[in-house]
Amino acid sequence: MNSKQLFKVALIIYCIALVFPVWTVKGNNPIYGIEALTIGALAVLTLDPRWFCNLVLVYSTNCVFKTFNKIYLKRSLILAAVSTTVIFGPFHGGLSMGSFDLFEGTGLDLGGYLWVISLWLFAISIYLRKTEIDSSSYP
Prior knowledge:
alpha+beta
């Protein structure tokens, strides 16, 4: 499988993760991937590292389809590793009002696992692109 094919597989998994519940909050209400992505965009203001993991998608798009950048490979691997920490919790969205936690999660759901898998596949697609470039430079 080459880097472009793996990128496409990762993109499909990422899109599927957007329509599945990422985690369930108190009261058995699911938060879907698209909601988490939208709410997570506000996490940029609080410098929550979990949202920044979505930059792996941007890095891999650039490296696989445009110009390979070694720094993007390193950043993507670090961000994919950070995304893995979401599996271990905490499942808290940050909107806390006294004893009322609006997004206090009870556990990670399928969408969350798919998101982590897709980010790792994006990072691996950058690495594959590097090996493709390296192997094409040899006579």
